[in-house]
Amino acid sequence: MIIVLKHGANEDAVSGFLEDIKQKGFGVHISKGIDKTIVGLLGDTSKIDPEDLLASDVVESAERVSAPYKMASRSFHPENTVVVVGGGQAGVVPCSIGDGKTVPLIAGPCSVENETQILDAARAVKAAGARILRGGAYKPRTSPYSFQGLGVKGLELLGMAKKETGLPICTELMAISELHHFDNVDLIQIGARNFQNFDLLKELGKAKKPVLLKRGLSGTINELLMSAEYIMANGNENVILCERGIRTYDGYTRNCLDLSAVPYLHKVSHLPVVIDPSHACGIRWMVPILSQAAVAAGADALEIEVHCHPEKAMSDAAQQLTPQQFTELADKLNRYAAVEGKTI
User: Fold this and answer.
1) What is the DSSP string of 35-86?
2) For the segment 296-336, what is each residue's pLDDT rounded down to a tens digit?
3) I need a surface site. Which of 80, 110, 128, 174 has the fewest CB within 10 A?
4) CA-to-CA distance for 63 and 100, rounded, in angstroms?
5) 151 contact partners, CB below 8 Å, separation of at least 6
6) Extended beta strands in 89-190, E state
């Protein structure tokens, strides 16, 4: 249920009204916009009659929210959420996602393989204009015989790259037991296989760090938003949604990129939306084309895989761009973004 407060309502009266709501056992989420303040009620509101709330002098209107997700809903939070990644650290340049002015590039190799590889990649993507460095320290792989990542050592190498380049780092978390190793990680990625690992999502709600939440292999939009709700309901509102392609009956690409998810998510939710074209298609030559389409569709950021020597990559070699290809793509994306008055 959402309650719109009257403009200029007495602050003491508002405080008393909110305290009364909390005393009845409901959670309260407050969203202050330029013209109005919206109060979202969290919990079972089925026994509350919206008409009864209008008896308060501070309430302008009250109505039920039909969507099962509440805190992720634009009804609860009309203004766009801007998530700042890497803020408050000496030597690290923070990156804002969802500000409507930029379309930041999150770039780097699929996996962290060794010190030389990740440092070379970090330097290359920064030089091309990337704002966040990505790299997998822990790798969920279909085959148990495939490279699984360097684990804690990989996180240490990402930290070295961050210190040298000033780029915030993004890497995937696979289990609650690994969370204590992620203190130096700026953006925690939850992959497609874990997007409904609800115990993990609850812990991320307590962690407060920005989270990049990827849509599941066959996940619906509602399921993605409900997963975001798990994180937000547990105290962390710094959630970024990621469309990375879904599985369909046709196998000509690795997945099917659902670009329609971008405008739809922007319509129903206030959270930023990122597109991952690399995992969507799994084919190097298609990544630039899908990236351009993503910018045109209104994506708030792009996550793109880049490797200095893709032919030698230990995972997902076929979809990773070379630094030269990424540089050329970044230049082109800047021109696409400029049409909407944005920059990369």
Assistant:
1) S-EEEEEES--TT--HHHHTTSTTEEEEE---SS--TTBTTT--SPP-EEES
2) 999 999 999 999 999 999 999 999 999 999 999 999 999 99
3) 80
4) 29
5) 137, 138
6) 95-97, 105-108, 132-134, 169-172, 187-190
